[in-house]
Amino acid sequence: MIQEKSCSEEVILAQIQEMCVIFLRECPSGALHLHEFKRIFGVQSSSPEESLFLETIFRSFDTNQDNTLDFIEYVAALNLILRGSLEDRLKWSFKMYDRDGNGKLDRKEVKSLIRILHKIKLQKTEVSLTPSQICDRIFELVDNNNDGEITLSEFMEGAQKDEWLIDLLNLDVQTSSWVIQNCRKLP
Fold it and tell me: What is the mean pLDDT of the chain?
């Protein structure tokens, strides 16, 4: 078991190193702009929803909000996506969903993201609920005090205790395979 974990970590470290080489090749200036980020992950000609989703991801990693990812932000993003714990990835997801930055998710924010995920990923699965129904179900499961907003603690607790919700969030939280797959599209 320990040997398996070590081998797995070596593979992940090798993938991070490969993506860092790509960063340095694609961005010799040391600054990765949104259009370059999209190109690296093969999203130039994708749907508007996938483009918006990638913009949201980009902005969540642009910690100094200068509209670029420097090498440190890029490595931190890769480390979170490829090696981060479930708790760390859920915190990141919450931050990404919290578009107005007030520390709470309202129905508008959740519904907006569910619509994007629905068009990108949920259509390919056997989910029979509409984005509005999914949003309602999330609020039923997670909004403990029924105030119409989800706090970080409600989000973390709800995401970890309900199998349906964790499966839904895994569409976003388990982005490592998506990152690796799309990064390999590069010439």
Answer: 77
